[in-house]
Design a protein that fits this description.
The chain is built from 3 helices and 4 strands. With 124 residues, the chain is of the alpha+beta class. The chain has one domain: 3-Layer(aba) Sandwich (Aminopeptidase), CATH 3.40.630.10.
Length: 124
């Protein structure tokens, strides 16, 4: 499922879908970048779907893209640079949808267990 449909990219000339990485299983990690015409606009980064079974956050980010897209040019939403990552963990998301609905981790194999919970592995 694509994060941005072709009609969205056509409707917003300042919207772009970019690949920001590749997962262990070879899926692309996609980000929606929506730029503002305002000079020195603040930049907001929203990431969703870090947990494989967190389907609600994925739906939120996809709705946020639509909401920002439909906002008027005078809206505060249009005064911000946006980077929205709807599925930070696409491997875990697909696995939880198709095999194990309680799966939270990515699908990387390691010596201790299958997968890493990427939401709990940030440098402090």
């Amino acid at each position: 499922m694509k994060l941005l449909s072709s009609w969205f990219l056509f409707a917003i000339s300042n919207a772009e879908e970019v690949v920001i990485g590749t997962t262990y299983e070879g899926r692309s990690i996609l980000a929606n970048k929506i730029t503002s015409e305002v000079p020195n606009a603040p930049h907001v980064v929203v990431e969703c779907g870090s947990q494989g079974n967190d389907w609600n956050s994925v739906a939120f980010c996809e709705s946020l893209v639509d909401y920002v897209e439909s906002s008027s040019e005078t809206s505060p939403l249009a005064q911000v640079q946006w980077t929205i990552i709807s599925k930070l963990n696409p491997d875990g998301y697909e696995y939880s949808k198709n095999s194990d609905s309680s799966w939270r981790k990515n699908r990387r194999l390691n010596e201790y267990c299958n997968g890493v919970n990427i939401a709990h592995n940030f440098v402090r």
